[in-house]
Design brief:
171 residues; mainly alpha
Length: 171
């Protein structure tokens, strides 16, 4: 079966993964020339899912989408919050951990993208047009205040992740 939406989003996952990998120079140094496009791209990716894909699928089957979307939305909130503080080695470990799990759940056979694709198949070209013309999300510079970091940790907790536990696991 042709899965253009699945392919579109999966290709974007791979593009973002490569940018993040290129941003990691060493455990003590992050290359912001790669991190900033990763940050912008991840926020755009989340915007495309939240503002285009999910509403289109919900319009077809609200009950099904209400069953499966809450965890994805919590993880989107956590990832968005993680884009606020400046990147550190530990922060990037957490981002990678969440993205690995999150992307798998979206991409796996029968996962979120397959469900959305099957629900919206009559709208595929229209959705692809909207997705490809989605503008970048305006960005502020990373916020180094403790409040920004603590807010990100709280968003992680809401999504079912504990920053401190994950840092220890990923070390």
């Amino acid at each position: 079966m042709n899965k253009p939406l699945h392919q579109f989003f999966t290709a974007d996952h791979h593009r973002l993964e490569k940018l993040l990998d290129k941003a990691i120079i060493s455990i003590h140094e992050i290359d912001m020339t790669f991190y900033m496009p990763f940050r912008s791209g991840l926020l755009r990716h989340i915007k495309m899912e939240e503002n285009i894909l999910f509403p289109a699928a919900k319009a077809i089957d609200m009950i099904k989408m209400q069953e499966i979307l809450p965890q994805f939305r919590l993880e989107h909130g956590a990832l968005t919050a993680l884009m606020v503080p400046p990147p550190t080695n530990n922060l990037i470990k957490i981002i990678k951990h969440i993205l690995e799990k999150h992307d798998f759940e979206e991409e796996k056979p029968g996962g979120l993208y397959d469900i959305c694709e099957s629900l919206t198949h009559a709208q595929t070209q229209n959705l692809l047009n909207q997705l490809t013309t989605t503008p970048e999300v305006p960005l502020h510079p990373p916020n180094p205040t403790p409040f920004a970091f603590e807010a990100a940790k709280r968003a992680l907790i809401r999504a079912g992740y504990d920053y401190d536990v994950l840092v220890k696991l990923e070390s």
